[in-house]
């Protein structure tokens, strides 16, 4: 019977990040991935040879610190803008990466207090980065409040305070569901690093798996774990769907925590109200490049465009490796002709990705791209359950996916922190 120091269930970006940290500490590590390819929802799909980012679509929250620590580099497309936002009235707002230019852009729009909002966002992100991000024990709400109580104010309250034209401009900073949630959330999602990734988002898995293999990590794809074996309240390993048993006293689960109940025969249960995610994601394969109406310009498509219809990318404008023309839409296709007048006649194929597709193809219950809701009830040390952190009630069973602190998107932070927790528990050494 095979034996490992650590078995990781899930070969998404968090599982791969964790495997690298563990291998760098000399631990014999195995990654088991149900799908035949790695990366999870950071996935590049193909249609007749044309590549496109199927689920996640831009990279922006993966910290430089983690890339440096595990010695990887992602090939991003550089651009001058974080995003280009087009209002309902077709006003164009260029959200520059350069802070001075960004402030000037908003001041031209009559936003006299924007510099204060920018300072709030950047100083809050710095606080979170320095004090609350790289931890093995997630912070409590009380700790966040003591450091900056404004992070617990409603997002709408903060944005109304600093935006003169709130109704028109708040979508630049916040999705609608965040408005009633703590401002921590819109700070969490803000980044000056949102960029298109060359080769599609599947490049994340390719880069991370290459590094993991260099370090000696064993990776099994196309194989599902049917059970996490537990005896006397302690992990003993896993059983694969075909019946193969693999032993380990440490198992890291990086999938949706809602799956743990079945995998542990009911010994670990996460009670989270997680309704089906209500988003529409459309990947449009084009016969040829579409025409672009004013007020848009081709230069804007080096990055993310936000139209009234939703978040749009045309990655093929800047990435020839995709082998064709692609438009991705996170929102709705209705009314796109206003900006791309010949899009219907140029469309060859549309891949619609909704919660049902995500649930089935990525084994993610209810299809939430963050695994669990990013609501106040499931933030900080409440994610996924009060008192857990990266550990579960079963000794040796850990969690380190988007359902763990700090949450979703392609960050690698839960994977890193979970790996550090395992290393700490093995060595009882505070210097993690």
From TrEMBL:
SUPFAM superfamilies: FAD/NAD(P)-binding domain. Gene3D superfamilies: FAD/NAD(P)-binding domain (3.50.50.60). Residues 5-314 form the FAD dependent oxidoreductase domain. It holds the Pfam family DAO. InterPro entries: FAD-dep_OxRdtase, FAD/NAD-bd_sf. This is FAD-dependent oxidoreductase. It comes from Saccharolobus caldissimus.
